[in-house]
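Milestone M4 deliverable, item 7.
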Amino acid sequence: MARWAVIPLSLAGAVTAFRWAREAFGETSGWIALVFWTFDPNILGNEALVAPDLGGSSMGLVAGYLFWRWLGQPNWSRAFFAGGGLGLALLSKSTLLIMGPLWVVSWGVYRWRQGTLRVRWRPEARQLALVLILAVYFLNLGYGFSGTGTRFGLSSFPELSGETGRRAKRPATGFVGHSWNMFPCRCREGF
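Output delivered:
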Protein backbone atom coordinates (compact mmCIF):
# COMPACT_ATOMS: atom_id res chain seq x y z
CA MET A 1 0.00 0.00 0.00
CA ALA A 2 2.85 2.42 0.79
CA ARG A 3 4.22 2.04 -2.72
CA TRP A 4 1.14 3.78 -4.08
CA ALA A 5 2.65 7.02 -2.81
CA VAL A 6 5.39 6.71 -5.42
CA ILE A 7 2.93 6.80 -8.35
CA PRO A 8 2.23 10.57 -8.13
CA LEU A 9 5.98 11.24 -7.99
CA SER A 10 6.53 9.21 -11.15
CA LEU A 11 3.63 10.97 -12.86
CA ALA A 12 5.00 14.38 -11.85
CA GLY A 13 8.33 13.48 -13.43
CA ALA A 14 6.66 12.19 -16.61
CA VAL A 15 4.47 15.27 -17.03
CA THR A 16 7.41 17.58 -16.35
CA ALA A 17 9.66 15.77 -18.83
CA PHE A 18 6.94 16.00 -21.48
CA ARG A 19 6.19 19.71 -20.86
CA TRP A 20 9.82 20.79 -20.66
CA ALA A 21 10.85 19.02 -23.86
CA ARG A 22 7.71 20.20 -25.67
CA GLU A 23 8.25 23.84 -24.67
CA ALA A 24 11.95 23.72 -25.52
CA PHE A 25 11.96 21.69 -28.74
CA GLY A 26 8.41 20.97 -29.93
CA GLU A 27 5.64 18.40 -29.65
CA THR A 28 7.62 15.43 -30.97
CA SER A 29 10.41 16.02 -28.47
CA GLY A 30 7.85 16.07 -25.67
CA TRP A 31 6.58 12.64 -26.61
CA ILE A 32 10.12 11.29 -26.94
CA ALA A 33 11.00 12.61 -23.46
CA LEU A 34 7.84 11.04 -22.06
CA VAL A 35 8.74 7.66 -23.58
CA PHE A 36 12.30 7.93 -22.24
CA TRP A 37 11.05 8.76 -18.76
CA THR A 38 8.43 6.02 -18.79
CA PHE A 39 10.72 3.22 -19.94
CA ASP A 40 13.97 4.28 -18.24
CA PRO A 41 15.23 1.26 -16.23
CA ASN A 42 16.10 3.44 -13.24
CA ILE A 43 12.60 4.91 -13.14
CA LEU A 44 10.95 1.51 -13.62
CA GLY A 45 13.12 -0.08 -10.95
CA ASN A 46 12.55 2.64 -8.38
CA GLU A 47 8.79 2.85 -8.97
CA ALA A 48 8.39 -0.36 -6.98
CA LEU A 49 10.41 0.96 -4.01
CA VAL A 50 9.60 3.40 -1.26
CA ALA A 51 12.96 5.14 -1.49
CA PRO A 52 14.05 8.74 -2.05
CA ASP A 53 15.57 8.09 -5.48
CA LEU A 54 12.45 8.45 -7.63
CA GLY A 55 11.18 11.35 -5.55
CA GLY A 56 14.55 13.05 -5.87
CA SER A 57 14.61 12.54 -9.62
CA SER A 58 11.06 13.78 -10.09
CA MET A 59 11.32 16.77 -7.78
CA GLY A 60 14.76 17.65 -9.15
CA LEU A 61 13.28 17.62 -12.64
CA VAL A 62 10.31 19.75 -11.53
CA ALA A 63 12.63 22.22 -9.80
CA GLY A 64 14.91 22.40 -12.86
CA TYR A 65 11.92 23.03 -15.12
CA LEU A 66 10.60 25.81 -12.89
CA PHE A 67 14.05 27.41 -12.74
CA TRP A 68 14.35 27.17 -16.53
CA ARG A 69 10.98 28.94 -16.89
CA TRP A 70 12.09 31.66 -14.47
CA LEU A 71 15.36 32.07 -16.36
CA GLY A 72 13.45 32.51 -19.63
CA GLN A 73 11.04 35.13 -18.24
CA PRO A 74 12.12 36.31 -14.80
CA ASN A 75 9.27 37.62 -12.67
CA TRP A 76 8.27 37.34 -9.03
CA SER A 77 5.60 34.67 -9.48
CA ARG A 78 7.96 32.38 -11.39
CA ALA A 79 10.63 33.00 -8.76
CA PHE A 80 8.14 31.97 -6.09
CA PHE A 81 7.33 28.71 -7.89
CA ALA A 82 11.02 28.00 -8.56
CA GLY A 83 11.74 28.48 -4.84
CA GLY A 84 8.92 26.13 -3.92
CA GLY A 85 10.15 23.57 -6.43
CA LEU A 86 13.68 23.78 -5.09
CA GLY A 87 12.36 23.41 -1.54
CA LEU A 88 10.46 20.25 -2.49
CA ALA A 89 13.53 18.91 -4.25
CA LEU A 90 15.64 19.52 -1.13
CA LEU A 91 13.03 17.75 0.98
CA SER A 92 12.97 14.75 -1.32
CA LYS A 93 16.74 14.13 -1.52
CA SER A 94 19.44 15.95 0.41
CA THR A 95 22.07 15.51 -2.31
CA LEU A 96 20.11 18.05 -4.34
CA LEU A 97 21.55 20.78 -2.07
CA ILE A 98 23.98 21.37 -4.92
CA MET A 99 21.13 22.83 -6.98
CA GLY A 100 21.11 26.16 -5.10
CA PRO A 101 24.73 27.15 -5.79
CA LEU A 102 24.50 25.61 -9.25
CA TRP A 103 21.49 27.78 -10.08
CA VAL A 104 23.30 30.93 -9.01
CA VAL A 105 26.28 30.09 -11.22
CA SER A 106 24.02 29.04 -14.11
CA TRP A 107 22.08 32.29 -13.91
CA GLY A 108 25.28 34.37 -13.92
CA VAL A 109 26.82 32.47 -16.83
CA TYR A 110 23.57 32.55 -18.84
CA ARG A 111 23.11 36.30 -18.43
CA TRP A 112 26.81 36.98 -19.04
CA ARG A 113 26.71 35.02 -22.31
CA GLN A 114 23.62 36.96 -23.35
CA GLY A 115 25.36 40.21 -22.50
CA THR A 116 22.51 41.27 -20.19
CA LEU A 117 24.11 40.61 -16.80
CA ARG A 118 25.07 44.24 -16.20
CA VAL A 119 21.62 45.50 -17.15
CA ARG A 120 19.39 42.96 -15.40
CA TRP A 121 21.43 41.75 -12.46
CA ARG A 122 19.77 43.72 -9.63
CA PRO A 123 16.12 42.73 -10.09
CA GLU A 124 17.00 39.19 -11.06
CA ALA A 125 19.45 38.81 -8.17
CA ARG A 126 16.63 39.81 -5.80
CA GLN A 127 14.35 37.25 -7.38
CA LEU A 128 17.07 34.59 -7.20
CA ALA A 129 17.57 35.45 -3.52
CA LEU A 130 13.83 34.91 -3.05
CA VAL A 131 14.16 31.51 -4.74
CA LEU A 132 16.91 30.44 -2.35
CA ILE A 133 15.18 31.87 0.74
CA LEU A 134 11.93 30.11 -0.16
CA ALA A 135 13.79 26.85 -0.73
CA VAL A 136 15.34 27.02 2.74
CA TYR A 137 11.96 28.01 4.20
CA PHE A 138 10.20 25.02 2.60
CA LEU A 139 13.00 22.74 3.75
CA ASN A 140 12.60 24.00 7.32
CA LEU A 141 8.83 23.76 7.04
CA GLY A 142 9.13 20.14 5.98
CA TYR A 143 11.28 19.38 9.03
CA GLY A 144 8.96 21.32 11.32
CA PHE A 145 11.67 23.91 12.03
CA SER A 146 13.31 21.41 14.40
CA GLY A 147 16.71 22.72 15.40
CA THR A 148 16.79 25.62 12.95
CA GLY A 149 19.37 28.13 14.13
CA THR A 150 21.06 25.63 16.46
CA ARG A 151 24.79 26.19 16.61
CA PHE A 152 26.56 23.71 14.39
CA GLY A 153 30.17 22.66 14.66
CA LEU A 154 32.84 20.11 13.93
CA SER A 155 32.07 18.32 17.18
CA SER A 156 28.75 17.41 15.58
CA PHE A 157 30.92 15.20 13.35
CA PRO A 158 33.16 13.20 15.71
CA GLU A 159 34.65 11.26 12.81
CA LEU A 160 35.78 14.49 11.12
CA SER A 161 37.09 16.23 14.22
CA GLY A 162 39.03 13.18 15.40
CA GLU A 163 37.11 13.14 18.66
CA THR A 164 35.70 9.98 20.16
CA GLY A 165 34.06 8.94 23.39
CA ARG A 166 32.94 11.53 25.95
CA ARG A 167 34.72 14.41 24.22
CA ALA A 168 32.52 13.93 21.14
CA LYS A 169 29.40 14.68 23.22
CA ARG A 170 30.32 18.29 24.04
CA PRO A 171 28.29 21.12 22.47
CA ALA A 172 29.18 22.35 19.01
CA THR A 173 31.53 25.32 18.93
CA GLY A 174 30.99 26.60 15.42
CA PHE A 175 31.43 25.40 11.88
CA VAL A 176 33.44 26.98 9.13
CA GLY A 177 30.79 29.19 7.55
CA HIS A 178 27.72 29.52 9.75
CA SER A 179 25.30 29.29 6.82
CA TRP A 180 24.62 25.66 7.84
CA ASN A 181 22.68 27.02 10.83
CA MET A 182 19.70 27.82 8.61
CA PHE A 183 19.16 24.12 7.88
CA PRO A 184 17.18 21.94 10.28
CA CYS A 185 19.17 19.59 12.54
CA ARG A 186 17.64 16.45 11.06
CA CYS A 187 18.64 17.57 7.58
CA ARG A 188 22.23 18.20 8.68
CA GLU A 189 22.52 14.82 10.38
CA GLY A 190 22.90 13.13 7.01
CA PHE A 191 26.10 14.99 6.24
